[in-house]
Each structure stands twice: as structure tokens, then as C-alpha cells.
């Protein structure tokens, strides 16, 4: 896992989240809490559902999983081939 590199947006999101810990209006709405933490203090609009499953459906995650995995591999290894490990 890559180390966290603080940015102004992430720091604002963390500060907002800390101020809202314990808020009952987000009970069982974890994704909405994280989305609001990024959107509200940074004046952004992220597009997704109210839950992870709804967002996955909205972005056709099942259909795009293989293509996304190939893009991630290409980005990580440069040419899209797996690096030898061992």
C-alpha cells in the first residue's frame, strides 16, 4: 500500500470527518459520510450512489472490472506486463 501524501483536499476532508464523528445522521451510510467529507469542505460534487453497491451499479463496475485491472497493471508496470516477483 502506498503511503498517504497529504493534500489540501484530503486534509480538509479529514478535518470535516473528525468534526462529524458520532453524528447519527450517517448511521449505516458510510459511503455518504466519506463522500460528504470530501465534497463539503472542498466545494466539490462527486457523483455516486448512497451506498457502495449503488455506486458500483452506476459505474458498471462488474462490466469494467477487467479493463480497470489492465489499466492499473499498465500504470504500475509501465507496459502492462506483470513484473517478476520472487
Summarize the structure.
Helix content is 57%, strand content 0%. The chain is mainly α. Helix 1 crosses helix 2.
Explain what the structure shows:
The chain has 86 residues and is mainly alpha-helical. Helices cover 57% and strands 0% of the residues. The radius of gyration is 17 Å and the shape is globular.
Q: Helix- and strand-based class? A: mainly alpha
Beta strand %: under 5%
Report the C-alpha radius of gyration, rounded.
17 Å
Shape field: globular
The succession of helices and strands, N to C, reads HHHH
Note the topology:
Elements: H1 8-19, H2 30-42, H3 52-58, H4 61-77
Helix pairs in contact: 1-2
Main attributes?
86 residues; mainly alpha; 4 helices; 0% strand; disordered C terminus
